[in-house]
Amino acid sequence: MGEVLDGAAVRRWSGLAAEALGRTRGEIDALNVFPVPDGDTGTNLHLTVLAAADAVAALPAGSGTGEAWQALTRGALLGARGNSGVILSLVFRGLAEIVGRPETAGDGAALAEALGYASVLARGAVERPVEGTILSVLESAAAAGLDERGPGLAGVARAAVAGARQALRRTTGQLDVLARSGVVDAGGAGLCVVLEALAAVITEEYPERYEVPARTPGEGTVREGRAEPAGPGYEVMYLLDAADERVPRLRAVLDALGDSLVVVGGDGLWNVHVHVDDAGAAIEAGLSAGRPHRIRVTYLHAGDRSQAPCTGRAVVAVTAADGLAALFESTGAQVVRREPGALPPLALLAEAILAAGDEVAVLPNEPEVAALAEAAAERARESGARIAVVPTKASVQGLAALAVHDPLRRFADDVIAMTRAAGATRFGNLEVAAEEAFTSVGLCQPGDVLGLIEGDVAMIGEDLAEVARHVLDRLLSGGGELVTLISGTYAPEGLTALLEAHLRDRHPDVEVGVYDGGQVLYPLLIGVE
């Protein structure tokens, strides 16, 4: 019988839990009617635990108990999917902070305390807790463990599983939507599987199968007879690098935008989950608080779609500048405008894609726009349209993709050609620092000129032309045949002429194209193909 939750036990538990959720995720998905009937809770929990298990498995041999628990919690935080996955990451964290120390790893009372602490953490992370959910199941598991607490792990683990199972059965009567559907809570069912895997590792009593309650015979489903989907339209998730003191304000902003808000993390790294109608506003809230990344936007009402109103091949490009919009339109794209420094409204982007045609390639042209473009594309695909998002991270990549666009090619071949052209275009830009900040090449002050190459600061200087020449030479160090220079609203007169002269002198074989983009934030955009 396992007498201690050491590194080896954590490895076995995470692997077994991932395997068990892999077997049961379809059954758990079928229970998923709350908060949104999108049928993915089991899948989300499985992916969350897989990420945690992979992080533990990647540890070097001989890693200690604390390192294993730390890897488990960080892997779950970074890989959490969906509302239940984010909450499950807190279960791991609560356990890790109490039984993750060698002196408590074999203590049954510590395991009971850890489950109680995990329950407190989970409730605290959910902005508006609801009874009859994974929170209720976790709370009951913790209470049962505390009633049983003693010197041994096995008794606490068995009691926690029994308490969780009893609470799971009660969830059907705690939420009207579950009662109408004849199901237990999907997240709670997944938590039971994870706790049973933990008990199996401790007791070495491995069940032949993990039970997931089926829908009650004769009961209906909330999906039947509903003409319009209820609740917000999009699930937005992202990791956020932000100072801890900025998170309360972020919570308030996101709570006003939607529901199912869960924010977990600490020490500068957070996992944010919310359901909203305006996905762009949720991401912009993250941008105001810190640096969001791994952004995922999912349309929640896949059954609610209108048909694409027209046929044909089209390209939709997103931009914030008049000159760039004219460039895209002159090369055959339909343009979706956004405000400088802001994201386009997702509904506007989705409508533009739906209106464009039956086969549409989307050029986001900024990393922050890519997640919204994917969500809009997903929505449009449900209408029967074929939509592809070409991963353009800069406007110069979008122009390069359009240069090889051929509407007479097969759609898949056209998208491949556009993707290759975008990927073969190195890009840079100039910015003027608005505040003091640390960069990859040192500290910058307000008013400094920053030269960026593919999003990373490569030089800090005082003169736009000098920094631009440095960026050009760096971009051309790997070769290139065509340089594109796009001047912005605040580019000094004569800047592009100076750069053309520099290119004639230093890189005489390179062809140069110069355009007025009218972008506000960047004095100069540079592309090298």
Name a few traits of the molecule.
single chain, 529 residues, alpha/beta
Task: Please give a structural write-up.
This protein is of the alpha/beta class and 529 residues long. It contains 18 helices and 16 strands. The strands form four sheets. Strands 13-12-9-16-14-15 form a six-stranded mixed β-sheet, sandwiched between helices. Strands 2-3-1-4 form a four-stranded antiparallel β-sheet, with helices on both faces. β5, α12 and β6 form a beta-alpha-beta unit. The longest helix has 25 residues. The radius of gyration is 27 Å and the shape is elongated. About 4% of the residues have low confidence.
Report the portion of residues in β strands: 15-25%
Instruction: Based on Cα principal axes, name the global outline.
Output: elongated
First-last Cα distance: 63 Å
Q: Let me know the average pLDDT.
A: 86
The order of strands across the largest sheet is: 13-12-9-16-14-15
Number of discrete helical segments:
18
By DSSP, the count of extended strands is 16
**Helicity range of the residues?**
40-55%
Give a short summary of the structure.
This protein has 18 helices and 16 strands. It has 529 residues and is an alpha/beta fold.
